[in-house]
Amino acid sequence: MSNSITYDIESYINKNVHVLPQTNQLRALHTIIRNRHVAREDFVFYSSRIIRLLIETGLNLLPFEPLDVKTPVGNTYNGLRFATKLCGVPIIRAGESMESELRAVCPSIRIGKILIQRDKVTKLPHYYYSNLPEDIHKRHILMLEPMLATGGSAKAAIQLLLDKGAQEDKIIFINFLTVPEGIHAVCSKYPKIKIVTSSIEEKLNKNAFMVPGIGDFGDRYFGTVN
Predict the structure, then answer these.
(1) In the Cβ-directed half-sphere of 73, how many Cα atoms lie within 13 Å?
(2) Residues with catalytic annotation?
(3) Is 27 in contact with 49 (CB distance < 8 Å)?
(4) Mapping DSSP to helix (H, G, I), strand (E, B) and coil, where does residue 4 land?
(5) Which residues pair with 70 in a beta bridge?
(6) For the purposes of burial, counting CB atoms within 10 Å of the CB of 68, is it exposed (0-12), middle (13-18) or buried (19 or more)?
(7) Which residue intervals define the domain Phosphoribosyltransferase in the entry (predicted)?
(8) Strands 147-148 and 125-131, bridge-based pairing
(9) Which of 70, 92, 132, 203 would disulfide-bridge 112, Cβ 3.0–4.6 Å?
(10) Per-residue DSSP letter, 73
(11) Tens of pLDDT, residue by residue, the chain (226 residues)
């Protein structure tokens, strides 16, 4: 992979790509989990706090419809409710790190699974397994995957969802970190996809790791890294 290529992603920001507000608190959380010496329990705890923010932001992109309710004092509150069926689809294995936070917010949500893994040598995605709700074509989908690097695995997962009947404009990709390369790869092929992320990194290095990055999110979260 050439590191000399630059990608203009400005047209995707706030249209396809929704970045969490870069508050001091978010930067402080990132500082903890990006530290190569942080304890695993702290990595999991503070990553989960950011994941919750990502999921709440993703839910805010869903359609709503009016719903009036009576309050305890007898008045009417002109409220809202979700206007769609919802499904979470983590990409195994790293995407499962985000599933518990989604279930905490939406306890009864349907969950599908896709197993697509990137070969550590060739960097190419390989499909192994999927199990999705039969009515996936009727649902808005929160696709869960922490890392959007080259975009190969994400594109393979999106195409699988589309082949199963999902609608492109109903897929919201909940993502922890990304880079311009990944944004360009996904949004140029699937222009109706929405991506929610906590940070857009500088670039990919020659090993397809993000810079400054966080390392292998799945290994660090599940404790399978030295």
Answers:
(1) 2
(2) 118, 122, 216, 219
(3) no
(4) coil
(5) 76
(6) exposed
(7) 21-224
(8) unpaired
(9) 132
(10) T
(11) 445 577 889 999 999 999 999 999 999 999 999 999 999 999 999 999 999 999 999 999 999 999 999 999 999 999 999 999 999 999 998 999 999 999 999 999 999 999 988 777 777 788 899 999 999 999 999 999 999 999 999 999 999 999 999 999 999 999 999 999 999 999 999 999 999 999 999 999 988 889 999 999 999 999 997 6
Kindly report whether the global pTM for this prediction surpasses the value 0.85.
yes
Task: Give a yes or no: residue 1 inside a domain.
Answer: no
Residue 65, SS3? Answer: strand
DSSP for 130-168 reads EE--TTGGGEEEEEE-SEESSSHHHHHHHHHHHHTT--G
Domain CATH number, residue 93: 3.40.50.2020
Is residue 2 included in any domain, yes or no? no
CB atoms within 10 A of CB 158: 22
Angle (CA) 145 149 151, round 5°: 80
For 173, the token pair is 């990709």
